[in-house]
Amino acid sequence: MRTITLSNGQTVEVECLSCALTGGLIEPEGGVIVETEYFHAHQDVAYPIKGLVILASKRHFTCLDEMTESERIDYMDILTKIRKAQREALGIDYVYYFYNEDTTHHFHTWMVPRYKWMSEFGRSVESVRPVLLHARNNMNHERNKNEVRSAIKVLAEALRN
Ligand SMILES: [Zn+2]
After folding, report:
1. CATH fourth-level superfamily of 29-158
2. 90 CA distance to ligand 1 middle (Å)
3. Hey, which of 22, 69, 73, 127 would disulfide with 122, CB 3.0 to 4.6 Å?
4. How much distance in Å is there from the Cα of 131 to the middle of ligand 1?
5. Which chain residues have CB less than 5 Å from ligand 1, an ion?
6. In terms of DSSP H, where are the helices of 58-116?
7. How many angstroms is it from 39 CA to the middle of ligand 1?
8. Is 0.90 surpassed by the pTM of this model?
9. Cross-referenced SUPFAM superfamilies, in alphabetical order (predicted)?
């Protein structure tokens, strides 16, 4: 069990932090980007990269082949819609996707935009980890975080209809 503090100051005990997040008990910093019957999208603000999205399952499972047919359809549908919104509302040309199955409880896909500045951290997929660390360690300043927060709002707005 973990103790979390809600926005109203109340504290609650939760068994799984991701359940509290995807179930709406706690609000991710910056807010929810989009939510479907089976999935929940938010940004991990610990890695302040504009337009980065984490798409997490609401149910506990960790491998792609554990999805039900309804989850598979919902997953591909919302993944595509988020991708389209990244392109049309934020001008993101390329996205790197990854998920790891040795996670705890919740299947989640990282959608990491590929920006030009990232090429100095390596070519293609080899740059992903250095880029995330760079963002976490050097981009956590207010100006960038404000850009990240407004991108969350732009994506949420684009996905509202
Ligand atoms: Zn959970």
Report:
1. HIT-like (3.30.428.10)
2. 30
3. 127
4. 28
5. 16, 18-19, 105
6. 69-90
7. 12
8. yes
9. HIT-like
